Amino acid sequence: MEDLTFEVMTRWSGSGREAVGTVETGDQVLAWSVPSGMGGRGEGSSPEELLASAVATCYTGTLSSLLSRDGLPWERVQVKMHETVIGQPTRIARLLASPNIIGGDPGRVEEYQRTAALARDHCFIGRHLRSDVAYEVGTVTVEPPAEAKGELDVRSLPPAQRHQLIFSTLDQLEAGRAVTLVNDHDPLPLRYQLEATRGNAFTWDYLEQGPKTWKVKIERQG
Amino acid sequence: MPAQWELARLLDKALRELGDAGQTERACRLAAQAFAILERQDPELAERFTGTLHHLTCVPPTRSPQATEAAAQGVGG
Questions:
Q1: Under an 8 A CB cutoff, do B50 and A196 touch?
Q2: Helices B65-72, A159-171: inter-axial angle, 10-degree rounding
Q3: B5-37, pLDDT tens digit by residue?
Q4: Distances A149 to A2, A102, A174, A180 between C-alpha atoms, Å
Q5: pLDDT (tens digit, 9 = 90+) per residue, A49-71?
Q6: Is the ipTM of this complex over 0.90?
Q7: Is A210 part of any domain?
Q8: Is A192 within 8 Å of B36 when comparing Cβ atoms?
Q9: What pTM did the predictor assign?
Q10: Cβ contacts (< 8 Å) between B47 and chain A: which residues?
């Protein structure tokens, strides 16, 4: 591989810790300041968070590659990176990655745990951490695919395709069976349409009502 | 524009005004009935009343521009 170069631009004005700066990466501009716990404004991100983000993004990409390589099923990977800063002198003492595998096989959690540990060793950015930073992997959680949980998540679908899929799924539902509809807004219009087109064939129970996610258990009457 | 589209446009307008007049529940049920009538025979036109229902139930627009445009055309989840 040829040598690669990367460049970011940071800006800072004002004096002391009371200012807010920006960091420009590609076409993104991110505000940052000194964390409030260190006497700063605590606005936007911070150098501490940016370092954790750099390691977390590299770790996440590495983990997803290794999951595929090892033949472990997955749909999405989420990683919470917990960073611990201690003083005096101030230094980063620990980075703890807690992966969440969505759409995986919960019966193979030990294999996921092994791959997650391997991803830490292969994480290119993480290898640049000083040896006195404890870079660790916590417990891996594995969630089954949405279908296995009886969920119908339409959030990633274009709006025009949502009702068609929902009606088709509900029409195939056996009596006494339920599906949990997951949407990014209150699917109340659908409820009116269901009642107008299918009468009282379905019950409707909200499990979660916003602000970002709505979950409704829709059950076909026996 | 075909007559049924003109009629659907008028009905959509009337239902929105009914909702604005405080009869939201009534307007929603009528919009859903209009959807039910058209669902099999003219699915494209039926979607207009999906848009009516979204307006009446005050669903905020979806964030992506494509979704916002689709919602304006009367489709959504």
A1: no
A2: 70
A3: 999 999 999 999 999 999 999 999 999 999 999
A4: 46, 11, 16, 8
A5: 999 999 999 999 999 999 999 99
A6: no
A7: yes
A8: no
A9: 0.59
A10: 160, 163
Residues A100 and A32 in one domain: no
Report the distance separating Cα A62 and Cα B43, nearest Å.
45
Most B CBs within 10 A among A193, A194, A215, hence the mutation to make, goes to: A193
Q: Kindly calculate the radius of gyration of chain B based on its CA atoms and give it in whole angstroms.
A: 12
Residues of B in contact with A171 (CB under 8 A): none
Q: Quick one: tokens of A163? A: 């009702």
3-state class (DSSP) for residue A154: coil
**Cα(A144)–Cα(A133) distance, rounded to whole angstroms?**
33
User: Mapping DSSP to helix (H, G, I), strand (E, B) and coil, where does residue A39 land?
Assistant: coil
Residues A136 and A211 both lie in one domain: no
Please say which residue of A104, A123, A143 terminates a domain: A143
B6: closest CA of chain A, how far (Å): 22
Angle at B74 between CA B29 and CA B4, to 5 degrees: 75
